[in-house]
Design a protein that fits this description.
It is built from five helices and seven strands, in the order αααβββαββββα. A hairpin with a 5-residue loop joins strand 5 and strand 6. The longest helix is centred in the first third of the chain and has 31 residues.
């Protein structure tokens, strides 16, 4: 009789057990963000560059600061040219044909130019002086021996005559634009003087009085008569 029990045991030993099977692979975990890592040497070089820039900036400021401190901003109102009106007037006498006025309204009036203008734009040559008034306004003086109505309109900016103003014992013709600009005109001793600017009338009067004084101290202008056309 066969031993069936041995055969059964043999079959049981040859059959692979479920415990011996390879386990199913587990799903891969979700990917995690990668943090960049800077090498220690690279981080040291970066820090050294930043520190070097800061040191260079501090050195530049330290070098520039003494220059600024040694050159403080000027306390004056700006550049003031040293104009000798009387000297320039004397030099212009020969070309002008008369002695230009050189008014002396006081130290509070500052001349910022004095010149003889050939009149290329107006057609009338004239003596010109500019004054900055005590209240930091401006009055321009123009004198000529060849005034004409067109020239006068140009000098007064077509402003109408609004009255007269006594200054230096003379009656000046007052022109007012109504926009702050005004002019005073005087024809005296052979020449015509125009004062024009944005100063107030009190400052105009001071300069005008000085002009009259200068006119009276100079020889009168002799205007040569125009030659009569030949018959």
């Amino acid at each position: 009789m066969r031993d069936y029990r041995r055969v059964s045991d043999t079959q049981d030993q040859s059959t692979p057990s479920s415990q011996g099977q390879a386990p199913n692979p587990s799903p891969a975990p979700a990917s995690q963000p990668v943090k960049p890592v800077i090498a220690a040497a690279a981080a040291k070089r970066a820090n050294a560059s930043v520190i070097g820039m800061i040191i260079a900036l501090v050195v530049s400021v330290a070098a520039f600061l003494p220059i600024v401190l040694m050159n403080p901003s000027p306390k004056s109102d700006g550049y003031r040219p040293n104009i000798d009106v009387s000297a320039v007037a004397t030099n212009a006498k020969g070309v002008a044909g008369f002695t230009p006025v050189a008014p002396a309204p006081g130290d509070t009036f500052r001349p910022n130019y004095a010149r003889w203008a050939a009149g290329s734009g107006t057609g009338v040559a004239a003596w010109e002086v500019g004054y900055v008034t005590p209240k930091e306004k401006f009055i321009g003086l123009t004198q000529t021996s060849k005034a004409n109505p067109t020239w006068l309109l140009q000098q007064t900016k077509n402003a109408p005559v609004t009255g007269t103003r006594n200054a230096g014992g003379k009656e000046w013709e007052l022109h007012d634009t109504g926009k702050g600009e005004k002019s005073m005109v005087l024809a005296y001793r052979g020449s015509t003087v125009v004062l024009a600017g944005d100063a107030n009338l009190e400052e105009f009067a001071v300069l005008a009085a000085a002009v009259v004084k200068s006119l009276e101290s100079n020889p009168a202008v002799i205007v040569s008569p125009s030659p009569s056309p030949a018959p």
